[in-house]
Amino acid sequence: MVRFLLRRLTVAILVALTVLTLSFLLTRLSGDLAISIAGPNATQQDVEMIRQAYGLNRPLAQQYLDWLVRAVQGDFGESFFFKDRVANLIAHRLPITLTLGLVGLALALVVALPLGIIAAVREGSYVDRGVMLVALIGQAMPSFWLGLILMVVLGLNLGWLPISGTGGWEYYVMPGIVLSFSAIPSLMRLTRSGMIEALSSDYIRTARAKGLSRISILVKHGFRNAAIPVVSIAAVQLGFMLGGSIVIETVFAMHGVGYLAWESISKNDFPVVQAVILVLALIYIALTLLADLLNAVLDPRLRTS
Amino acid sequence: MTALLEVQDLRVTFGGTAAVRGASLAVAKGETHCLVGESGCGKSVTSLAIMGLLARGGRREASALRFAGLEIGGLNEREMSRLRGDRMAMIFQEPMTSLNPAYTVGSQMTEVLRRHRGATRAQAVDRAAELLGRVGITAPGLRLGQFPHQLSGGLRQRVMIAMALMCDPELLIADEPTTALDVTVQAQILRLLAGLQRDLGLGILLITHDLGVVARIADRVSVMYAGEVVESAPTAELFGNPRHPYTRGLLACVPVPGKVKRGDPLGSIPGVVPRIPPGFRGCAFRDRCEYAHAECSGPIPRQQAGPGHEVLCTLALAA
């Protein structure tokens, strides 16, 4: 167990370092930074000054090391556009994105798990086929389009929810629904197939032979085993949702990290873009690690060998 | 002797295929009753049908299905689940996969007693430890905290047996409990079952295709062929005076030390258990039977061949 986790932790650190390096290289590859910072009206002298000021004239390796040391300490420099520390910007915006992602995941689980279980129990029935059809539609629907539909119906026509903006819980409902839609189909399919496999297993027959209640057979003995892959995928899906928040936050004008990324990209504000990519990637890595940990908790064969 | 379990004219179909075609058998209180036959003859399906554990798509009918005087054929799933694990228990052929990999042995054992008897956790743990000791597991306390994958096949089957005994059942159905185990372990498990049966007065319905096992522990034997019980008799009577050609064939397949000379061919029954089409009449064994004659495609009489000895055959075979 400890060895398993140490191995996963080592891999996670290596991936994080790779992401750090790539995000550094990407900004350096996309043209001369000094020119893009200086803007179209700058003179050659201005560009040279900026190059000096930001240390862009130093060897690449030195710039990289310098940047790496500060990035590891949480110092991503200063935004060109917002005139604020990048770390501050992200610290302000990240809670919004994380809340949105968690709302999306919670909604997805609340819908996907029961439907997946019901579909598995009634395998081959109309209920099963109906659920799978909904999964197919959900998978095929672009999230920005669903977002617009929800805005028109729930926001404009019914007036139940605010159309866009950042604020209290009601602002999270529609974007949360849209985000959850991207995760529901895969979670539901996985729950269904896992449950079908579990329910046809010998230990379920044993559970029935022991006269256990239906709920205990389905949930305690069936779902517990079907849940192992679902947990991994749910963690990965949360990572996708956080990445996908760039689209959703832009559609719903929520001022989270995704919106920040979109703004910074359009303003060529490279320290911010770099930091956002980095933070999202690190969260993703952390989530994968968390999934491994949860798997080990859920699967005793992993834990005790 | 009062019958603990009485099955009359049991029929099980999957889709249009008949797996059991009118099987009848009775298990007396405290008796070990062996159900033997080739693979595919309907032994396992019969046992699952009695427990109400048929896989999806299986349909069960019987003119009588009585357990301890109670007609259980018409019980619904909820009523059946109150009996299962409590008064009638079952163990299976595959000890490796029959325990849930996600829970400890203790958790899986205690839930039976807690479900049926409303026992407290502590009571259930005590009972589980006591039974693990009873089935010959040393260090029960340690085993209770272990997961199935940490145990060998023989230990898992002992755990399954102990788990089946949690509520002191009157009937234990064992579906080929030793088939997946090493020969040495097989003998241990069988001795264990025989001992438990003696000490607890348990009625056992043991499904097996191993006639050696039958000879050692059965009080009574029923021979199944193609979904029917073709012969049923007390063990000594069946081995000493088999009447059905199929039973004779089965017995001829087993080498007996001292009787079979080295180099002599072992007996065998040509062919395999046939698929029985719907509307089939007559004896299902007639295509493989050397004594088959015209009457075998008509209705087959159930004959009394001696005290407690029934045979389903048109022939009156000499001893």
TrEMBL record, chain A:
It is a multi-pass membrane protein. This is ABC transporter permease. Keywords: Cell membrane, Membrane, Transmembrane, Transmembrane helix, Transport. The keyword Transport applies. The keyword Lipoprotein does not apply. The chain crosses the membrane at residues 96-121, 133-160, 172-190, 226-252, 272-298. Belongs to the binding-protein-dependent transport system permease family. CDD domains: TM_PBP2 (cd06261). Pfam families: BPD_transp_1 (PF00528), BPD_transp_1_N (PF19300). Residues 94-291 form the ABC transmembrane type-1 domain. It comes from the Bacteria. It is found in: Cell membrane.
TrEMBL record, chain B:
Signal peptide: none annotated. GO terms for molecular function: ATP binding. Keywords: ATP-binding, Cell membrane, Membrane, Nucleotide-binding, Transport. Residues 5-251 form the ABC transporter domain. It is a peripheral membrane protein. Gene3D superfamilies: P-loop containing nucleotide triphosphate hydrolases (3.40.50.300). It is found in: Cell inner membrane. CDD domains: ABC_NikE_OppD_transporters. Transmembrane segments: none annotated. Belongs to the ABC transporter superfamily. This is ABC transporter ATP-binding protein. It comes from Falsiroseomonas frigidaquae.
